Amino acid sequence: MDSLAPEPPPATADPAVLLDLQIDRYRRILVAKLEGLTDEQLRSSILPSGWTPLELLKHLAYVEIRWLRWGFLAEDLDDPWGDRRDDRWYVAPEETLADLTALLRATAARSREIAAGTPLDRTAPLGGRFALPVEAPTLGWILVHLLQEYARHVGQLDVVRELLDGATGE
Question: Would the N or C end of the chain have less CB density within 10 A of its end CB?
């Protein structure tokens, strides 16, 4: 899996480039960790919290939607919480791994477009996710938040995958 998700080159110094490369690396690790699981494993939970691997995938796609489109661009979205139902992460029975991987990839492409060439110190406008009296975050803050979301959740998925079938590593 290392070839699917290499670390950025060690000489990379531009923070925007580093964030883009690291977030994309975790997206690839996430998808790779789901490959090889059965549909039953993808839709079942082995954790007390009850989340499933497919729910985690959908959740991370919507995290990007909420922070970059609804948050940073203040887009008016019908359902920025499309991964929630009854205060839980939710995947409809007809949604497949292929569907949710396609959602993540499309979301990632849009996220990269939003961040490309935008200064990290640019502040999100008020509206959408951020309204007074909230202090709107910068693009840099949002991207670091996304990176930590991916790192934390991919780490959780590491444990789930090891418990399911013993697979370890990136």
Answer: N
pLDDT, tens only, 81-98: 998 888 889 999 999 999
User: Letter for the amino acid at 113?
Assistant: E
C-alpha to C-alpha distances, 30 to 11, 105, 110, nearest whole angstrom: 25, 11, 18
CB 123 within 8 A of CB 136: yes
Interaxial angle between packed helices 97-115 and 53-64, expressed in degrees from 0 to 180 and rounded to the nearest 10: 20
CB 111 within 8 A of CB 64: yes
Decide: 27 and 57 in contact? Cβ < 8 Å: no
Domain boundaries, given as residue ranges, for the chain: 24-165
What number does CATH give the domain 24-165? 1.20.120.450
45 neighbors 52 (Cβ within 8 angstroms): yes
CB of 42 closer than 8 Å to CB of 34: yes
The one-letter amino acid at 129: R
